[in-house]
Design a protein that fits this description.
alpha+beta, Glucose Permease (Domain IIA), ten-stranded antiparallel beta sheet, 34% strand
Length: 196
C-alpha cells in the first residue's frame, strides 16, 4: 500500500512542500491575488491586441481605398492637369484630369477599391466609369471603347473596369483620368506616381 512519505501526516508535509516551493508568504489568498494580477495583465494585453488589430485593419482599408497607381499598365501621359489649349476649340481651357494615351482596347483598371457610381455615356467623356472610394475620393475614367462594370458593383484595386478607346471629345485612344477629393478635381499626377 502506498501512502504519504514516512514521517508525514496525510495533508501535512506534502502541502507544505507546495507552499515552500511557491514561497512561504504565498497562501491561498496570496495565490488568488497573484492569479488576479495575471488575469488583469492578460486582459490588458488582449485590449492592446484588439486596438492593434483595429488600427491595422483601418490602415489597410485606408490604403486600399486611396487612389494609387496607373489606370493602364502600358501608356504615357499625353496631357496633364491644368490649363492647356483645348484640342477642339484652340482656346485655353482647364483640363481637370490627365490623359494617358495608349493602344485602343488596353485594359483600364481601378486604382483603388470602391463602388461604381457611373458606367455609361456622359457628355464630353464618352463612355465613362466613375468610382466612389470613400473618405471623399472619386475617380473617373473617360473615353473608353467598352465599359465592363455596372453601377453599384464593388471593384478592387487593379480590377479591369473598361477598355481604352476614343469616345466623346477625344482625338485618339486614351483614358482621361480624374481624381476628385470632396467633390473638387485635384491633380491626378501624384496619385499616378504613388507606388502600391
Amino acid at each position: 500500500m502506498v501512502g504519504p512519505p514516512e514521517g508525514a501526516a496525510e495533508g501535512g508535509a506534502a502541502e507544505k512542500g507546495l507552499g515552500s516551493a511557491l514561497g512561504s508568504t504565498v497562501g491561498s489568498t496570496g495565490l488568488d491575488a497573484e492569479l488576479g494580477r495575471l488575469e488583469a495583465g492578460l486582459a490588458g494585453r488582449a485590449r492592446g491586441l484588439a486596438l492593434l488589430e483595429s488600427w491595422y485593419l483601418e490602415r489597410r482599408l485606408r490604403r486600399s481605398t486611396t487612389p494609387r497607381g496607373r489606370p493602364v499598365r502600358h501608356g504615357w501621359v499625353s496631357s496633364r492637369y491644368g490649363w492647356r489649349t483645348d484640342p477642339f476649340t484652340g482656346l485655353r481651357a482647364f483640363h481637370q484630369g490627365v490623359d494617358v494615351a495608349g493602344r485602343a482596347g488596353e485594359p483600364v483598371r481601378a486604382v483603388a477599391d470602391g463602388v461604381v457610381t457611373w458606367a455609361g455615356r456622359r457628355y464630353g467623356y464618352g463612355l465613362l466609369v466613375e468610382i466612389a472610394h470613400g473618405r471623399g475620393y472619386v475617380t473617373r475614367y473617360g473615353h473608353n471603347r467598352e465599359v465592363l462594370v455596372q453601377v453599384g458593383q464593388r471593384v478592387r484595386q487593379g480590377e479591369v473596369i473598361a477598355r481604352m478607346g476614343s469616345t466623346g471629345r477625344s482625338t485618339g485612344p486614351h483614358v482621361h483620368f480624374e481624381v476628385l477629393r470632396d467633390g473638387r478635381p485635384v491633380d491626378p499626377l501624384p496619385y499616378l506616381r504613388a507606388a502600391r
